[in-house]
Design goal:
By secondary structure, this protein is α/β, with parallel strands linked by helices. The chain has a single domain, classed as 2-Layer Sandwich (Nucleotidyltransferase, domain 5), CATH 3.30.420. Helix content is 53%, strand content 20%. A 5-stranded mixed sheet has the order 3-2-1-4-5, with helices on both faces. α2 crosses α3. The longest helix has 20 residues.
Length: 176
């Protein structure tokens, strides 16, 4: 309910700000014993931009994910990926192949963004349907981005102020 409002505000902010670097990654999620893939785009600050669930991990799925992400958030300057060849093939179709970077530890930002999702997934005792996974992934990303701030980058006082502001904004959305 509130995730769409938060997402709209974030999307407007991202369009006005140049996106320097995106980190793309996919993770395996089991639904009723069947393997599905959750594709995720994370920006250079660690905020999850987009989540997309597919049954396959091929060029077609990567292309759809990239087009959806770029349509909503614009084109980034650099796309950091792992060595999955589907990304390269999809970017060649789009015309972004020169913007792709791959490396051994370059994609740690995206890998670490999976951890809060995995914690919540475990608490929920997994997923039953692909649709519920897609809904949960998009809402979880919006809420997590809204409340998460890098504690190590600010003083305790500023951290508490930003958390209080986020909570006040959340309560304003909930009251409406």
């Amino acid at each position: 309910m509130f995730a769409s409002e938060i997402r709209k505000k974030r999307a407007e902010r991202f369009r006005s700000w140049p996106q320097w670097r995106w980190h793309l990654d996919e993770m395996f999620v089991k639904i009723n014993g069947e393997r599905h893939y959750l594709w995720r785009a994370v920006d250079h600050e660690g905020e999850v931009l987009e989540s997309y669930v597919t049954k396959t991990r091929d060029k077609k799925a990567a292309l759809k994910f990239l087009r959806k992400s770029m349509k909503r958030h614009g084109r980034p300057d650099v796309l950091v990926t792992d060595l999955l060849r589907s990304y390269g093939a999809a970017m060649k179709d789009i015309g972004n192949a020169h913007r792709q970077e791959t490396g051994r530890w370059l994609n740690n930002r995206a890998e670490n963004s999976h951890l809060p999702f995995r914690r919540r997934e475990r608490a929920m005792q997994r997923f039953r349907r692909m649709r519920s996974l897609q809904k949960f992934a998009s809402v979880h990303a919006s809420v997590f981005n809204h409340f998460n701030s890098e504690r190590s980058l600010t003083s305790r006082q500023n951290f508490k102020l930003s958390r209080a502001a986020a909570l006040a904004e959340w309560r304003q959305f909930a009251a409406a």
